[in-house]
Design brief:
- About 40% of the residues lie in helices and about 20% in strands.
- The chain has an 8-stranded mixed β-sheet, sandwiched between helices.
- By secondary structure, it is an alpha/beta fold.
- It folds into 2 domains: about 200 residues, 3-Layer(aba) Sandwich (Rossmann fold); about 90 residues, Orthogonal Bundle (N-(1-d-carboxylethyl)-l-norvaline Dehydrogenase, domain 2).
- A hairpin with an 8-residue loop joins strand 10 and strand 11.
- The radius of gyration is 21 Å and the shape is globular.
- The protein has 12 helices and 12 strands.
- Bound molecules: nicotinamide-adenine-dinucleotide.
- Nicotinamide-adenine-dinucleotide binds next to helix 2, helix 3 and helix 5.
- InterPro entries: 3-OHacyl-CoA_DH (IPR022694), 3-OHacyl-CoA_DH_NAD-bd (IPR006176), 3HC_DH_C (IPR006108), 6-PGluconate_DH-like_C_sf (IPR008927), 6PGD_dom2 (IPR013328), NAD(P)-bd_dom_sf (IPR036291).
- Its EC number is 1.1.1.157.
- Belongs to the 3-hydroxyacyl-CoA dehydrogenase family.
Length: about 350
């Protein structure tokens, strides 16, 4: 019989009473360990979610298993967010950073993110408990070899990404999945540098990670099917939606989103309208939740420029970066992270 307290890291989950299947609802027995996949994939093949009673209220939760141990390389804007959501799910998370200073900043970013989530009521656990599952390292030799998932979120440069991925691969065991959070680079080319490219996949998360609902799972020709299956399960365990996209420059999201952003910058350059108006055109006219210039500010102008340069080289002239974008990056106006981009923050 299941009793409260048997799942220490999942204590907020109460008894599992119902399981929803493709053919409707049925009674499910208690799940001995909700982190195991049997509820989802063996005992009840069609079960993807179960109704649980939490604090007296019924709710639907995902039963895909979470990775036990996650390594995030680079604890910047994206890496800190990725570390935060996996630690919130119950995974033991290590961030690898490039220096002591960057390591302290990464820890602070995760702590701030957790505090904000708690303020919004979006964190069912105490932020300190979640932070207790986070380790920040500066030495790849200290990386946990039993990692289920290693995901890199270092700046958008192929040489840098290959360097950190090969160093991580040398450290982890054969079962570990290696992933990149690249917004645009070729997953096949990054993976080709690895000893085992079959375990490498793109996991393109979005900014801000805790609030965004989508993960693009980018599949290179050499990516193994089992790796894709495991990663999609982890995405669902995070409560996010995955789309599977063939490895191609910019995937689905960056290719469309960057094109719109670059055209908006060109319109600003040509004096078609001011930044506020261009954003309003898309927000109110086309019901986009955020205009293309504000979205560029949020991503970071430097990050956008790097992606545009790559897409220009691979897909052609329609992605040529506008001079205004280059000028702003050179002036250090990188968007929200520096207080000024196309808008003041
Ligand atoms: N910013 C976004 O909106 C966004 C969205 C989706 C994907 N991405 C992608 O995510 C990746 C990271 O972007 P970001 O915005 O978080 O960048 P960022 O500059 O905020 O963070 C990069 C982090 O990597 C660390 N780093 C650099 N070299 C390292 C090394 N050798 N070892 C360990 N850590 C190292 C830096 O110290 C920094 O903390 C990029 O590939 C980017 O294209 C970004």
């Amino acid at each position: 019989m299941w009793r409260p307290g048997r799942w220490p890291r999942w204590s907020s989950r109460a008894a599992c009473h119902w399981a929803s299947t493709a053919s409707g609802s049925r009674t499910a027995t208690a799940i001995p360990d909700p982190r195991a996949t049997w509820c989802g994939s063996r005992e009840y093949p069609n079960v993807r979610s179960v109704k649980v009673v939490r604090d007296g209220r019924e709710e639907l939760v995902n039963v895909d298993s979470a990775p036990d141990v996650v390594v995030v390389i680079g604890g910047g804007r994206m890496g800190a967010g990725i570390a935060q959501v996996f630690a919130g799910l119950g995974s033991e998370v290590s961030i690898v950073e490039s220096s002591d200073e960057a390591a302290s900043a990464a820890r602070r970013r995760v702590a701030d993110g957790l505090a904000k989530a708690a303020e919004r009521g979006a964190l069912p656990q105490d932020p300190e408990t979640v932070l207790g599952r986070l380790t920040v390292l500066t030495d790849f030799a200290a990386l946990p070899p039993q990692a289920d998932l290693v995901i890199e979120a270092v700046p958008e440069r192929a040489d840098l990404k290959i360097d950190v991925l090969t160093r991580a691969e040398a450290r982890v065991g054969p079962e570990s999945v290696l992933a990149t959070n690249t917004s645009s680079l070729s997953v096949a080319e990054l993976g080709a540098a690895l000893r085992e490219p079959g375990r490498f996949v793109g996991t393109h998360l979005f900014n801000p990670v805790p609030a965004s609902k989508l993960v693009e799972v980018v599949v290179a020709p050499q990516t193994g099917d089992e790796v894709v299956r495991r990663v999609r399960g982890w995405v669902r365990a995070l409560g996010k939606t995955d789309i599977v996209v063939r490895d191609s420059p910019g995937f689905a999201t960056s290719r469309l989103g960057v094109l719109l952003g670059l055209e908006a910058i060109r319109m600003l350059e040509e004096g078609v309208a001011d930044a506020e108006s261009i954003d309003k055109a898309m927000e109110l006219g086309y019901r986009h939740p955020m205009g293309p210039l504000r979205s560029t500010d949020l991503v970071g102008l430097d990050v956008r420029l790097a992606i545009a340069e790559y897409l220009h080289a691979t897909l052609g002239e329609r992605f040529v970066p506008p001079q205004l974008l280059r000028d702003k990056v050179a002036a250090g106006e990188l968007g929200r992270k520096t207080g000024r981009g196309f808008h003041d923050w």
